[in-house]
Design a protein that fits this description.
Elements lengths: L5 E8 L5 H11 L20 H6 L6 E7 L2 E7 L7 H8 L4 E7 L6 H12 L4 E6 L8 H11 L4 E3 L1 E6 L2 E7 L4 E4 L9 E3 L7 H15 L4 H8 L6 H13 L4 E5 L8 H11 L9 E4 L6 E4 L8 E10 L2 E10 L1 E2 L4 E4 L4 E4 L2 E6 L2 E5 L2 E2 L3 E5 L9 E3 L6 E2 L9 E6 L6 H14 L4 E5 L4 E6 L2 H15 L4 E2 L3 E2 L2 E4 L3 E11 L2 E13 L6 E5 L7 H14 L10 E2 L1 E9 L7 H18 L2 E15 L3 H10 L3 E8 L2 E9 L6 H8 L5 E11 L2 H6 L6
Parallel strand pairs: 1-3, 1-4, 4-5, 5-11, 6-11, 30-34, 33-35
Antiparallel strand pairs: 2-3, 7-8, 8-9, 9-10, 12-13, 12-24, 14-15, 14-23, 15-22, 16-21, 17-18, 19-20, 19-22, 25-27, 25-28, 25-29, 26-27, 30-36, 31-32, 32-35, 36-38, 36-39, 37-38
Helix pairs in contact: 3-4, 12-13
């Protein structure tokens, strides 16, 4: 298999920028699909879930494979809504390249920034495609400027749009000096070499000169041609541009209008010309699961098998595990190691994925992205390797959920099915958390936003045939220790038919660096390892329900100072119960604060409605960071407590006659002042 002929890339954007339409057009022009699917008609192939087709948005990342110019392009179409950012995060972890789609009218938007941060975090070489250049108010160079200003990207145009009577009719390629005419839709398009059309000649020549000057920094031969005022060969320009793109020094910017079928073929050419093959990315690094030694695995089909499970689709017949193969040759029937739990896994089938369908493969190689079936213990972020050559790749981390809901079955007959369905959804989506309350018999689910939880509710109905009762969305508060406390717990009773005695003394203190509750042991505590593990698990479990309002505990460090028993009355369960009792006493003595999620917001509104929206945001306790003027549009940015923003979409539509839009994303937590808690009816008895 020729690894140089593979391109693994994703398409990401703010919601409604048109990335799924771009993907659908790629499928059409590559011959994979014989009809171009449309999001607005619910016929998009990659929006395969019923929920996606009903809402007209992408919810889950979809994978497909496209042949182009003799190469294999593995494409992942990612969601644009902030509630499903997890899909972008885990895909960028395994992709070699990416396309960032921008709206030509508004340029960079809030979620554009979020996906760009993920691209930079994983150092993913990126192309930018300015879409919707056919719309009224479109400004190609303005969109490029927003990428430079807001993303701090070194964005450089390599194309320029051509208009006729206000309509987008063609795109001029500044690298190859070729005109792509798109007047005729749904047919193969070919570029024609030659000078730029007269109406754009001045702009095109200036932009090409700037392009050559910039690329001269990355190629001495090209720089020499520029200095000597010689016209460089197109292959030389492409070489320099590829070098700069792979080094993440430049972001080439292309343009078009996917819905009008403009700009797709040259965009696929750019994927081939400027994005890396698996051989051109750095070897993946991990650690030995026992020694901790750093290990580098180059992309080699003859090397020891190594893969990262980056996404799961949990179905009734088992998990479909999406995996990036970093090294080795893979075949059905292989026995692998999941080093997280040191468990063996056997691959039943290897599939090439196309949306919800799959084609069975007899063999797959390093550098590929495939789906595996038959894995029983593998979760998102797990490494798959061999026992002879173990390795653990960097674990994926995800944001904490910010909104909760109470869920209960419609009838007693549905209780077990509901629990299983919720567990299956939580297994698939690491940002969807499920907790069962034994006292009330209800489940508390948590997610990244109102839409996230609403989609999960509908999936319960559509995929599992359930109609659970759900409560109103609530803020996912946390409880944090703000002052130290100590406690002593003692158990002296019969457990399991024999006398048991245990006594535990511990202290709890604030620890801003702790994600939840961290447990430490004083040096002299004489407990064996298995008992310590059970005590730690008991304390962490108890901390899932804080002492004030039952919210999870965070930022706390528990130090166990002493643990004693009496001869003949040793009991692991007694130690656990004594430790839990001591923790409750310590938390009662300590001060515990309540934290709530903060959200970073961006509101885009016509200028005439800005003052009313600002006044409304101020009434919600928002901290306005900036107001940006872009023509007749005002962009408002800042932070606000999530509690104040429930139902805001209705409010902002009312204040702007339906013309304003907004986005929010998590921005950390803040401690809620006690007067605010009392005003919300949250009083600690």
């Amino acid at each position: 298999m020729d690894l140089a002929a593979i391109r693994n890339f994703g398409i990401a954007a703010h919601i409604d920028a048109g990335k799924t339409t771009v993907s659908e057009r790629m499928l059409f022009h590559s011959g994979v699909e014989h009809r171009a699917g449309r999001v607005d008609e619910g016929t998009a192939v990659l929006d395969w879930m019923a929920e996606e087709r009903e809402r007209g948005i992408t919810i889950t990342a979809a994978a497909t494979t496209i042949p182009w110019r003799g190469l294999t392009l593995n494409l992942i179409d990612t969601p644009g809504h902030v509630d499903f950012t997890v899909e972008v995060e885990r895909c960028m972890r395994v992709l070699d390249g990416a396309i960032l789609v921008l709206d030509a009218v508004v340029g960079v938007q809030a979620q554009s920034e979020a996906v760009w941060r993920e691209m930079r975090r994983y150092e993913v070489p990126t192309l930018c495609f300015v879409n919707k250049c056919d719309r009224a108010g479109a400004d190609f160079l303005g969109a490029v400027a927003t990428a430079t200003e807001r993303l701090e990207a070194r964005a450089i145009p390599i194309q320029y749009p051509v208009f006729e009577d206000g309509d987008l009719v063609a795109v001029y390629d500044l690298v190859d000096r070729r005109l792509w005419d798109f007047r005729e839709q749904n047919v193969p398009h070919q570029g024609v070499d030659g000078p730029p059309p007269e109406e754009i000649a001045e702009e095109a020549l200036v932009l090409r000169a700037e392009l050559l000057d910039t690329l001269g920094e990355f190629d001495e031969e090209l720089l020499e041609a520029v200095v000597e005022e010689r016209e460089p060969d197109a292959a030389l320009v492409r070489r320099a541009l590829r070098r700069a793109t792979l080094a993440c020094e430049l972001v080439p910017v292309l343009c078009g209008a996917a819905l009008r079928d403009a700009g797709i073929e040259p965009l696929m050419d750019a994927v081939v010309d400027y994005l890396p093959s698996p051989l051109e990315v750095r070897p993946i690094e991990g650690v030995h699961p026992k020694s901790g030694e750093t290990i580098a695995r180059p992309c080699d089909p003859d090397g020891p098998p190594c893969a990262l499970a980056f996404k799961l689709h949990s179905g009734r017949h088992g998990d479909l595990v999406f995996a990036r193969l970093y090294s080795g040759t893979w075949k059905p029937g292989m026995v692998l190691l999941n080093p997280r739990d040191d468990r063996k896994e056997r691959i039943q089938r290897i599939q090439r994925i196309h949306a919800e369908a799959g084609t069975a493969l007899d063999v797959a190689h390093a550098g590929d992205i495939v789906a595996l079936t038959g894995l029983k213990f593998t979760s998102t972020g797990d490494t798959l390797c061999t026992k002879e050559d173990p390795i653990v790749l960097e674990v994926l981390t995800f944001s904490d959920p910010v909104i909760t809901r109470v869920v209960e079955p419609a009838s007693a007959d549905e209780r077990d099915r509901l629990g299983q369905a919720l567990d299956r959804l939580a297994h698939e989506d690491p940002t969807f958390r499920v907790q069962f309350d034994e006292a009330s018999g209800q489940w508390r689910v948590a997610g990244m936003g109102e839409l996230h939880l609403e989609v999960m509710e509908h999936r319960l109905q559509q995929e599992s045939g359930l109609s659970p009762r759900v409560g109103q969305p609530r803020v996912a508060y946390r409880e944090a220790v703000s002052s130290p406390g100590s406690g002593r717990g003692q158990i002296d009773r019969e457990l399991g038919g024999k006398d048991a005695y245990a006594e535990v003394e511990l202290e709890v203190a604030p620890d801003p660096e702790a994600a939840g509750v961290e447990v430490e042991w004083a040096t002299a505590v004489p407990l064996p390892g298995p008992v310590r593990a059970a005590v730690e698990a008991g304390l962490v479990g108890e901390a899932q329900s804080g002492p004030r309002f039952g919210h999870p505990m965070v930022q706390a460090r528990v130090v166990i100072r002493d643990a004693r028993t009496r001869e003949g009355e040793e009991s692991e369960l007694a130690y656990v119960q004594a430790a839990v009792s001591a923790l409750r006493q310590a938390l009662h003595e300590a001060k515990v604060a309540v934290q709530e999620p903060l959200m970073r917001f961006e509101v885009q509104t016509p200028a005439e409605f800005a003052s009313g929206i600002i006044a409304d945001l101020n009434s919600r306790g928002a901290e306005l960071a900036e107001v940006v003027t872009e023509g007749e549009t005002r962009i408002l940015r800042g932070q606000v407590p999530l509690y104040e923003m429930f139902g805001y979409s209705t409010a902002v539509r009312s204040l702007s006659q339906g013309r304003a839009g907004f986005t929010m994303r998590p921005a950390g937590y803040r401690t809620v002042p006690e007067p605010e808690l009392e005003a919300r009816g949250m009083v600690w008895a």
